[in-house]
């Protein structure tokens, strides 16, 4: 299988061709794979076809002879709907197809899919980090849960879309890795925005402050590649009106998922919960469709955050 993947001969069905899934599917086409894609948006399907993929008319049509099925969908309910039922992935994929869900969902969703599937179905959960820029550049980080041998078998294919593939453990572990990462990301973005606002309010140049923190103990990913202050970093979402990138709605969703995982495992995550509340207020203030770094321009008070359930 690894040899086939490296030669670009796999038949891949890609379900969900949005801001993340579309570029990921296009990179598989570039790598030489035969990609048939489906999305509820006809425009998204047309973009894949223009990139060299094939348009499918339904999930069943997309997966009918695929060797690998990849799904990239907004939430757990969408994943379950795509996989279950007479027109879904499980009913129409071939018995030996490898099914990979790259959505960000609760860890119990992939385990639920395993219960719905026939015995022996090859399943992986493989959420990603890296945002739309990483999806377009093929530099995503994959966090994978499932059988170790199957992960190795799929590593070359995933490598066509990302530069790092980490196996976290059994099915569901990929989602847990993703939720831990994004909880920390939410904390970092909120904290970095606060530090920048404090400096600016006291007369500092945000470019100078960012450079100092980036080379000091406050260094973090948001300062290095995703500065939330407009004009500091040319290619960041903040410098293009907070468009594109990773929406506040999605960050709020991921923080809710992390909160749920913390509650179910009886782990205290006070900073993660505060970040969840901050982004929920930011979302309620009408910024759900903007990149999550737009929290920089919408200071949320502690009182506002603590008022969120």
Describe the structure.
Pathway: Amino-acid degradation; L-valine degradation. One of its GO terms (molecular function) is NADP binding. Keywords: Branched-chain amino acid catabolism, NAD, Oxidoreductase. InterPro entries: 3-OH-isobutyrate_DH-rel_CS, 6-PGluconate_DH-like_C_sf, 6PGD_dom2, 6PGDH_NADP-bd, HIBADH, HIBADH-like_NADP-bd, HIBADH-related, NAD(P)-bd_dom_sf. It is an enzyme of class 1 (oxidoreductase). The protein has 309 residues and is α/β, with parallel strands linked by helices. It folds into 2 domains: 159 residues, NAD(P)-binding Rossmann-like Domain (Rossmann fold), CATH 3.40.50.720; 130 residues, N-(1-d-carboxylethyl)-l-norvaline Dehydrogenase, domain 2 (Orthogonal Bundle), CATH 1.10.1040.10. The chain contains 15 helices and 9 strands. The strands form 2 sheets. A 6-stranded parallel β-sheet has the order 3-2-1-4-5-6, with helices on both faces. The chain is globular and about 60 Å long.
């Amino acid at each position: 299988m690894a040899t086939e993947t490296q030669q670009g001969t796999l038949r891949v069905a890609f379900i969900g061709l949005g801001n993340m899934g579309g570029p990921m599917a296009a990179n598989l086409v570039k790598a030489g794979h035969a990609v048939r894609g489906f999305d509820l948006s006809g425009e998204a399907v047309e973009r894949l076809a223009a990139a060299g993929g094939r348009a499918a008319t339904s999930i069943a049509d997309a997966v009918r002879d695929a060797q690998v099925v990849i799904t990239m969908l907004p939430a757990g309910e969408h994943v379950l709907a795509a996989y279950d039922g007479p027109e879904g992935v499980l009913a129409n994929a071939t018995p030996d197809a490898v099914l990979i869900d790259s959505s960000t969902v609760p860890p119990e969703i992939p385990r639920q899919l395993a219960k719905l599937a026939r015995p022996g179905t090859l399943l992986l959960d493989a959420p990603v980090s890296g945002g739309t820029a990483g999806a377009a550049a093929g530099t995503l980080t994959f966090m994978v849960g499932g059988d170790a041998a199957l992960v190795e078998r799929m590593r070359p294919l995933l490598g066509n879309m990302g530069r790092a593939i980490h196996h976290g453990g059994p099915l569901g572990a990929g989602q847990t890795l993703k939720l831990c990462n994004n909880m920390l990301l939410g904390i970092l973005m909120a904290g970095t925005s606060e530090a920048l606002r404090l400096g600016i309010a006291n007369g500092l140049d945000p470019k100078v402050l960012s450079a100092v923190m980036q080379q000091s103990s406050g260094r973090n990913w948001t300062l290095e590649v995703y500065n939330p202050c407009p004009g500091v970093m040319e290619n960041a979402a903040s410098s293009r009106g907070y468009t594109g990138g990773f929406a506040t709605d999605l960050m709020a969703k991921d923080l809710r998922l992390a909160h749920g995982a913390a509650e179910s495992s009886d782990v205290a995550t006070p900073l993660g919960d505060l970040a969840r509340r901050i982004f929920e207020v930011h979302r309620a203030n009408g910024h759900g469709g903007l990149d999550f770094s737009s929290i920089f321009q919408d200071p949320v008070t502690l009182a506002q955050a603590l008022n969120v359930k």
